[in-house]
């Protein structure tokens, strides 16, 4: 039996940015952000544990999120 992976799903919904965290028990919580700066701050909260998550990003946010995750600012 394989271990369930935690997921972060990042997308835009009704002009809001969403980080949906899905735990290993398939329970989801959503955080909503009005601006990309808010989304950036929300993602930075996951910086210490990001390697524990499978990250799924919508096509329209892919470049923004990947650039953030690879930035020296995010890497610490």
Low-pLDDT runs of 5+ residues are: none
Strand content: 25-35%
The tally of helices reads 3
Overall form = globular
Q: Give me the oligomer status.
A: single chain
Gyration radius (Cα, Å) is: 12 Å
- Please trace the helix and strand order, writing H or E for each element: EEEHEHH
Report how far apart the termini are: 35 Å
The main sheet comes to:
4 strands, mixed
Compute the average pLDDT: 93
* Helix/strand structural class: alpha+beta
Main sheet: which strands, in order across?
3-2-1-4
Q: How much helix is in the residues?
A: 25-40%
The number of distinct structural domains comes to 1
The strand count comes to: 4
Structure overview:
The chain is α+β, with helices and mostly antiparallel strands. It has one domain (6-60). It has helices at 36-44, 62-70, 72-75; strands at 6-13, 16-22, 28-33, 53-57. A 4-stranded mixed sheet has the order 3-2-1-4, covered by helices on one side. 8% of the residues are buried. The model has no long low-confidence stretch (mean pLDDT 93).
List keywords for this structure.
76 residues, alpha+beta, globular
């Amino acid at each position: 039996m394989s271990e369930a992976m935690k997921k972060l799903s990042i997308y835009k919904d009704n002009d809001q940015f969403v980080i949906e965290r899905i735990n290993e028990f398939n329970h989801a919580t959503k955080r909503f952000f009005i601006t990309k700066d808010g989304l950036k701050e929300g993602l930075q909260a996951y910086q210490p544990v990001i390697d524990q998550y499978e990250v799924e990003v919508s096509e329209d946010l892919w470049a923004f999120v990947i650039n953030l995750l690879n930035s020296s600012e995010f890497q610490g």
